[in-house]
Amino acid sequence: MFTKYLPSAVTLVSAATAAAVTTFDADANTNMAVYWGQGPGQQRLAHFCEDSTIDIIPVAFLNIFPDQVNGGYPGTNFGNQCGPETFVNKDGSDSPLLSNCQFIGPDIKTCQAMGKKVLLSLGGAIPTNQSINNDESAVAFANFLWNAFGPEDATYDGPRPFGDAVVDGFDFDIESEITGNDPASQYRGYGTMIDTLRVFFAADSDKEYYISAAPQCVIPDAHLSQPIETAWFDFLFVQFYNTPQCSARAYFDASYGRVGDKPSSISFDAWVNFVRTKALNKDVKLYIGLPAAPAVTYDPEMYIAPDDVYNLIDLFQCRYPKEFGGIMVYEATYSEQNLIDNKPFAAVVKSQLTDHECAKPATLTSSTVSSTSTSSSLSVPLSTENTSPPTSTSTSMAGMHNSTFTVGPTAPIITALPPSPSTLLANQMEFLAWSPQRAYHIL
User: What separation in angstroms does the CA of 56 have from each of 132, 152, 388, 430?
Assistant: First the structure.
């Protein structure tokens, strides 16, 4: 099942150094969340964690859900950071769960030592058929996530893709195809998953865990509005791009993406109202999600330069001191390559967040951390030692895809299910008219 790899061309140098580490503050209104895992020619995760301006890193993606692979393990895709090897299902068949991601686990621990919160992001735009069949499947999926990516337990004998690293929570970026055949499939099970994960979180008093979501900017979001109403989220990384009518660009151009006579504009005010009136967690933090470069979106015009980003910060950081959490940027590599005055896009925007008069930043603490220096790119190991038969290969772009599967006893298996989800919001299908382009983007 597991494959052992010996690093060759990548140099790992550990050193204990005294450094100023930002203590993560979920209540700050200056946080910067930057997705990583799908960048073109991306560098290792630890490389981006050396950037002190990043606070939260959703690692993207676990993109194939169990109910789409008929009883096996879910699937992952982290671009160039994994080899093609995969774990073998309990019945001996190949799974889409990548097993040779040898540097992600150590890098997660490096990032956490630097004060970052690392989340595993579920979903993405490819494949388009992600869904959960029922509450039982949702509970089983949550059990797998906890066993595979939560704290280690000696009695669990299933996959641990990141080794002994423990993520700081899970991000829900659900973007499956919207159809009228089974509307409930767009949101079914996610609230139950989160409720189950929360039970596991509460059982681990040594660590604080978080749940986030990345809904589209239109309200209601076809996949996530209902779970936000029924389950406890900590952060909402609202994507103010890809859907023209409610995008950040629409704030600066009321004709951009206009539908009929209705002027377009960014929907941040509407999201604040949604959280205040409908979200289970009325204190959930809202982030303005932005593309890091023109190439991120199908329409480069949706990218807004830092001068315009500042105008949004100036407006919403002050207007909503309770709800505003910061900025989300997709994605790390695009940000690093988009230099403004020799600084990555995300770093420039972070400075705008922290320097504003309405900023409520986190605090710096001096501590000794173990840092890891890495080469600029992932290298293929020279030799391998296999402890199980080889499995089939998988692609290196996020494009892959039900199930009853066995879970280990790391935490009690939840059998008492939360209440059934409520009825889908009546105007859900309006989303189709607003955002037919959304499947073009990986996030």
Answer: 27, 22, 35, 32
Beta bridge partners of 57: 118
CA-nearest of 23, 61, 52 to 331 is: 61
Cα angle 56, 291, 165 (rounded to 5 degrees) comes to 25
Verify cis geometry, omega within 30 degrees of 0, for the bond prior to 61: yes
Average pLDDT over residues 236-263: 94
Q: Is 218 a residue whose pLDDT tops 50? A: yes
The CA distance from 398 to 343, in Å, is 28
Bridge partners, residue 377, by sequence:
none
Placement of tokens 């509307």 in the chain: 183
And the tokens for 384? 């391998």
**Which of 56-70, 169-183, 258-272, 274-288 has the least mean pLDDT?**
169-183
- Write the Ramachandran bin of 163: left for phi over 0, alpha for psi from -120 to 50, otherwise beta: left
Q: Answer yes or no: are the C-beta atoms of 184 and 420 closer than 8 Å.
A: no
Distance CA 320, CA 68 (A): 40
What is the Cα gyration radius of the chain? 21
Counting beta carbons within 10 angstroms of the beta carbon of residue 408, is it exposed (0 to 12), middle (13 to 18) or buried (19 or more)? middle
Of the two residues 42 and 180, the one the predictor is more confident about is 42
Residue written as token pair 């159809």: 179
- Count CB-CB contacts under 10 A for residue 18: 9
**Looking at 175, 229, 323, 336, which residue is catalytic?**
175
Dihedral, CA of residue 93, residue 98, residue 102 and residue 103, to nearest 10: -170
DSSP 3-state assignment of 213?
Answer: strand
Tell me how far apart the terminal alpha carbons of the chain are, to the nearest angstrom.
30
Whether residue 116 is predicted with pLDDT greater than 80 in this model: the reply is: yes
| 323 catalytic residue (yes or no) | no
Q: Which amino acid is at 150?
A: G
Distance in angstroms (rounded) separating the CA atoms of residues 190 and 174: 9
Q: What is the dihedral of CA 217, 224, 74, 55, to 10 degrees?
A: 60
User: Across residues 15-26, what is the average pLDDT?
Assistant: 66
| pLDDT more than 70, % of the chain | 77
The tens digit of pLDDT for each residue in 348-394 reads 999 999 999 999 987 766 544 444 444 333 222 322 233 332 233 33
What three-state secondary structure class fits 145? helix
Query: Helices 135-149 and 190-203, interaxial angle, to 10°?
Result: 40
Instruction: Specify whether the CB–CB gap between 421 and 231 falls below 8 A.
Output: no
